[in-house]
Specification:
Residues 42-152 form the Ig-like SoxY domain. InterPro entries: Fuse-rel_SoxYZ, Ig-like_fold, Ig_E-set, SoxY, SoxY_sf, SoxZ_dom. Residues 183-271 form the Sulphur oxidation protein SoxZ domain. This protein is mostly beta strands and 278 residues long. The protein has helices at 11-22, 37-45, 160-166; strands at residues 2-4, 50-52, 57-60, 71-77, 87-94, 101-107, 115-120, 126-134, 139-146, 170-174, 186-193, 216-223, 226-233, 242-248, 254-261, 265-272. The strands form two sheets. A ten-stranded mixed β-sheet has the order 1-16-15-12-13-6-5-8-9-2. A hairpin with a 2-residue loop joins β12 and β13. The termini are close together. Residues 1-31 have low confidence and may be disordered.
Length: 278
C-alpha cells in the first residue's frame, strides 16, 4: 500500500540538501592533508567528548571499493551480553563526502539489533567514522579508511524511466525460516526500497544538467508496532536503499516498513513476520 503525505523535511534531510548543492563542484580527490573530522565533531555532535569504541562497535568496509557508488558497510555491536548498557543510536559519517553525515540509525529498545548492513556512495579517499551513543549517555567512535572516488556523482545504474517505475516498491526477506529455533530467537532480515536516491551531484547525460537531489530520508521498521530500527538517510545512501539487520523477534505476526522521501511521498508495506515478499 502506498500513501502520500507532505511532511516538512527533517533537519538531516534539509542539511544534506544544502550540503549537496554547496558542493556540486567538489573535486574528485580530497584536499591533501585536510582533515574534516574535528569540524564534523563540532557540527554534527556539538563537540561532545568521544571515547574509543573498539570494545563497543566495529565498522566493516572494503579498503578499496570496487564500485564507489555501492560500497558495502556493516556495523556490529561488540557489547558483551553481560553489559547492562545498550546502543541507542549509530551515526555513520563519511568524512570527505559532500554531505558527510550519511545516516543515523536508531535501534529499538527491545529489538536487540546487533548488526546493520547497507550500501553507500563514497566520493573520495576518506576516513569513515561510526559513532555509537549508548544508554549511559556517552559517545564511542570507531573508524576505517576507504579508497574510492566519484561515488556521489556516478550515473544511476537504472535508466530514469525504470527508476521512476520502481519508486516505492518494497521487498522484505527473512533469513531465519519459520520453525528454526524459538519464536523469540535471533532473526536476520533485509528490507529494500526502490528509489533512485539521486544525490544532486549526478548529471543527466542528455541535458548535461544536474539531477536534483531526491532521496529516501526516513525509513522505519517495526514488528507489530514495536520499533526494530529507524534510519535517517541522505545522499550518501546508494540507489535502491537496502538495509540488512539482525534483531530479536518479540513473537510478532507482522513486520512493517514505512519510508518517506524528500518530496514528501510515504510508502508503506506489511508482511507476515515469518516470510519474505514484495
Amino acid at each position: 500500500m502506498i500513501g502520500l503525505r507532505l511532511p516538512s523535511l527533517s533537519f538531516l534531510s534539509a542539511g544534506l540538501l544544502g550540503a549537496s548543492l554547496a558542493f556540486c563542484f567538489a573535486p574528485a580527490k580530497a584536499a591533501e592533508g585536510y582533515d574534516p573530522w574535528p569540524g564534523l565533531v563540532q557540527d554534527v555532535f556539538n563537540n561532545k567528548p568521544m571515547q574509543d569504541g573498539a570494545n563497543v562497535l566495529s565498522i566493516e568496509m572494503p579498503a578499496r571499493a570496487e564500485d564507489a557508488s555501492v560500497v558495502p558497510v556493516t556495523l556490529r555491536s561488540k557489547l558483551s551480553p553481560a553489559d547492562e548498557r545498550r546502543i541507542k543510536t549509530i551515526t555513520l559519517v563519511i568524512d570527505q563526502n559532500p554531505a558527510p553525515m550519511a545516516a543515523k540509525f536508531t535501534l529499538g529498545a527491545d529489538a536487540n539489533v546487533t548488526a546493520i548492513s547497507t550500501r553507500v556512495r563514497v566520493n573520495n579517499y576518506t576516513d569513515v567514522h561510526a559513532v555509537a551513543e549508548l544508554t549511559d549517555g556517552q559517545l564511542y567512535v570507531v573508524k576505517t579508511f576507504v579508497k574510492a572516488s566519484g561515488g556521489c556523482s556516478a550515473p544511476a545504474a537504472k535508466n530514469p524511466d525504470e527508476a521512476k517505475a520502481r519508486i516505492g516498491q518494497m521487498r522484505y526477506r527473512q533469513f531465519t525460516q519459520a520453525g528454526d529455533g524459538a519464536t523469540s530467537g535471533i532473526r536476520e532480515a533485509q528490507v529494500m526500497v526502490g528509489h533512485p536516491n539521486n544525490s544532486g551531484l549526478q548529471m543527466d547525460q542528455l541535458t548535461q544538467l544536474y539531477i536534483p537531489a531526491f532521496f529516501v530520508d526516513q525509513l522505519t521498521l517495526s514488528q507489530d508496532g514495536s520499533l526494530v530500527l529507524s534510519v535517517e538517510g541522505g545522499i550518501s545512501i546508494s540507489e535502491d536503499p537496502n538495509i540488512r539487520f539482525t534483531y530479536v523477534s518479540n513473537g510478532a505476526k507482522h513486520f512493517r516498513a514505512e519510508a518517506r522521501d524528500t518530496q514528501g511521498h510515504v510508502f508503506e508495506h506489511e508482511w507476515p513476520a515469518e516470510g519474505s515478499g514484495t
